[in-house]
Amino acid sequence: MDEKIRLMDRVLEALHREGLLEHFIVVGSWCVYFYKHHFQNVLHFPPWRTTDIEFDTSLLRKASKKVDITRVLKEFDFVMRFHGDEGYTSYVHPEIIIEFLVPQKGEGRTNPYKVPGFGINPQPIRFLSVLEEDFLVIDYRGLPVKVPHPAHFSLHKLLVSVERKNRDKVKKDREQAMAVWEMLKNLGEEDRLQKVFSALSRKQRNLIVQALKEMNESGKAEMLAI
Predict the structure, then answer these.
(1) How many distinct helices (H) and strands (E) make up the chain?
(2) Percent of the chain clearing pLDDT 70 (strictly above)
(3) Where do the structural domains in the chain lie, given as residue ranges?
(4) Which CATH number is 1-148 given?
(5) Which residues make Cβ contacts (< 8 Å) with residue 16, sequence separation at least 6?
(6) What is the pTM of this model?
(7) Average pLDDT for the chain
(8) Which residues of 51-69 are buried (b: 16+ CB within 10 A; e: fewer)?
(9) For residue 82, what are the β-bridge partners?
(10) Counting Cβ atoms within 10 Å, is residue 133 exposed (0-12), middle (13-18) or buried (19+)?
């Protein structure tokens, strides 16, 4: 088993023992790994590597007890790192970097977002709320792992790709978006993309259409707008 996956499994098990796992949504590129586990032989995606595993923390407020997450991660030799004036924290290991996220509220905020009682400062991210609208609970080796519904994931990847500066990340985002889109098509759920798209703001819809046109996927853009 890949060392990254082995370490991630141990972290997920620890979060589950502490009663926290059900209050996180895994977002970002690791979702592809979990989709492949859940939708076996449906998602066809080229070999992928990523070190960052990202957790949306919006559900933590529902947790019945407070747990020092920094303490939990230090047991696996993660080192806490503070970032910039915003003061958000990430947890670094030679195999994996763990990041905790929260939807950005308002422009220009400089004071840290904090989750009292859990010892973390999540990083504020634009458009993260798109991934919170609907999610799946995947049985991953006996652990209940929450991931965004694939339709939300696919459109979110297109949405954020327009604002990225790094061309390699733009390419990666769009490859993942199209792979998951094709998976939904194979599952007979392509119409779900239209429903998610129609519920987004006009600005978000325009950015997604822009991404698809830049990819020469105007047909998909027209399908969403029907």
Answers:
(1) 8, 8
(2) 93
(3) 1-148, 150-226
(4) 3.30.460
(5) 22, 143, 144
(6) 0.92
(7) 90
(8) eebbbbbbbbeebeeebeb
(9) 89
(10) middle
